[in-house]
Design a protein that fits this description.
This protein has two helices and eleven strands, in the order ααβββββββββββ. It is mainly β. Keywords: Signal.
Length: about 170
């Protein structure tokens, strides 16, 4: 996949440290993240129409190999992630990730299954505020999971793990 979304976010102030940095360590055998974006807000999750816990904002991770994963927390030790096969950005305010797999991690144990579906993110024109996102994934047994994210109006935070933070601009002499 080509890095579409990061282009829209090239003007973001990249931060390091804090809670976001905790999500950036790649487990053994996993590709290292190139870009991690945290969007503050709330989420709702449904599986075949039945509500499930969803307790976080949205996290977008682009790995060094180009793979993209969008994830949410579903309780203290449960993460649900949607992995893309391809992506597009038909307008600056709209990003679409076509899904290939859904990952579930419970207390550090992970499982993945093939799915069809997509995640769509609606954002401000500059990419700094994510308003809404919907991920809809259906597996081979026709189990459908829908995650709906609503941003809280705050700007996203972004980190590029492994890169040194940019130096603050100097005031002009005068």
């Amino acid at each position: 996949m080509r890095p579409i979304l990061p282009f829209a976010l090239s003007g973001l102030l990249l931060v390091s440290g804090g809670a976001l940095a905790q999500t950036t360590a790649a487990p053994q055998g996993q590709p290292a993240p190139r870009l991690v974006i945290g969007a503050p807000g709330s989420c709702e999750m449904r599986v075949n129409g039945d509500p499930r816990p969803c307790s976080s904002g949205l996290v977008y991770v682009q790995h060094q190999d180009g793979a993209v994963l969008i994830s949410v927390q579903s309780g203290a030790n449960v993460t649900i992630g949607f992995e893309g096969r391809s992506d597009s950005q038909p307008q600056r305010e709209r990003y679409i990730l076509d899904l290939a797999r859904m990952h579930t991690s419970v207390s550090g144990r992970s499982a993945a299954k093939q799915v069809t579906g997509s995640c769509e993110i609606e954002m401000s024109r500059d990419g700094r505020t994510w308003h809404r996102a919907t991920c809809s994934a259906t597996d081979r047994s026709n189990l459908t999971m829908i995650v709906t994210f609503t941003g809280n109006g705050s700007q996203v935070t972004a980190a590029r793990p492994g890169e040194a933070p940019a130096a603050a601009p100097r005031a002009p002499k005068g």
